[in-house]
Amino acid sequence: MDYKKYIAEKINVDGVTKEELYELIALPPNTEMGDYALPCFKFAKLLRKSPVMIAEALKNDFQTDDVVSEVSAVNGYLNFKIDKNGFVRGALDKIFAEGDAYGASDEGKGKTVCIDYSSINIAKPFHIGHLSTTVLGGALYRIYNFLGYKAVGINHLGDYGTQFGKLISAYKRWGDKETIEKGGIRALNELYVKFHREAEEHPEYDDEARAYFKKIEQGDPECYELFTWFKELTLKDVNKIYELLDIHFDSYAGESFYSDKMQPVVEELREKGLLVESRGAQVVDLEEYGMSPCIILKSDGSSLYATRDMAAATYRKKEYDFYKCLYVVAYQQNLHFKQFFKVLELMGKDWAKDLVHVAYGMVSLEEGTMSTRKGNVVFLEDVINKCIEKAYAVIDGKNPDLEDKEEVAKKVGVGAVISGALYNNKIKDIVFSYDKVLNFDGETSVYVQYTCARANSVLKKGLAPESFEIPELSTVEIDLVKAIAEFPETVRAAAEKYEPSYIARFAVDVAQRFNKFYFDCKILSAEDDRTKNFRLALTAATAQVLKNAFALLGIGIPEKM
To answer: pTM for this one?
Structure first.
């Protein structure tokens, strides 16, 4: 049962909808006051009464029943106590009935959500800086599918620009096919770094690079073949990482895909009188909206990111008719997205309101910042492999006889990398620490995985019963049931706020509550069969919910640890 909905339906506040009431009902900080609480402060101005008086009046009007057993008004809050046995029975029955689908819904049926994420640059390293966009986008992709939407994962490849001319120039001067085939993206990166180092002494190399890129655009057979080869090598390398992180895409349409789709956008801007000249460039003046001009065409007539992104958004609306189109891109690009969203709005695109920039903070290692041009980058593959190696060492030390240690270490190491990027609010900058993400006792994925292994161990010794009765419940047991019953609402909130961290933190909270239950309540040696069977059922339900939560984040759960 959705208790918040049940309560909201039974309350009447003039001028306030049931949906608004539903959103206001929350879990009180002090569970002794009640299981749910409605703060009445927002009604004071509307009803011209004090919150205390409003809460008291609503309490007197509310009829208790076999679902809501008690209502109280305290300091402007209306508190509700749910019938404990009915609540626990309903929650566990729902989890067991729905299994892997617990928390899912069909609320997004018939709606498409495009998600632009990862968006790697061809022939450039897939480095630690790409971690957040990749795992954040991957989590949102799973969450929206889980809620019944049709999610379309788009890898908007960075496959357009002078850097490809630079690579061709470097390859023809210093490279050879065998070395590049063997070294892949790392070998390409070495050429790129060498080009920038040498171009400082030979500025004519930059002119050569521009000429080569022009040849790519014109379809020169040799240059286009090299460009295509660089692209294939890059995707071959990065797909290994995507496989490790369980990341999938439905489209790899990158910047070059839109090269023939930009002109109609430019023409429409011109027809609608939005283009003005500024220092030889064609721009849309956004001063009225507190922004600098959005440059559409440079003085030499070449396009920019904004032009290509507007062409891409227009194509996606036509191709997918999206309900929303999300761009999972770092906050440094805030202005860029505000600009081109506003330009599309000024063009009369009513769907511009459905474009969302899901901004996130930067990820760095404790060693410091990176630069692709200078060559001091940290490859994401190296970070993942190091986490797997460290996880293996810890597991080998704790449980040397464990079967499939390599597979367990892989799940733990990869999970630690994903969780390291998803645990905190997405907008925060992250300094990635190996020791922190692999802490078995901290607020980490490893802690949750270890908790699940503990639950699985209990369930192997005493199978969860097909049916159970509810005994006299302790506060610890009720608190755990309350926590796992919040999963469907947590998933909805994560989708609404574009915040997978809600699910990551939910999982840690549930794991902490389960461990308190595990240590405070005897399970296998409970005082009677009724209590034992219930506690086994609660253990199985918790394990199921944690599995569902981590599946949405892309983190596997080892059977044993």
So the answer is: 0.88
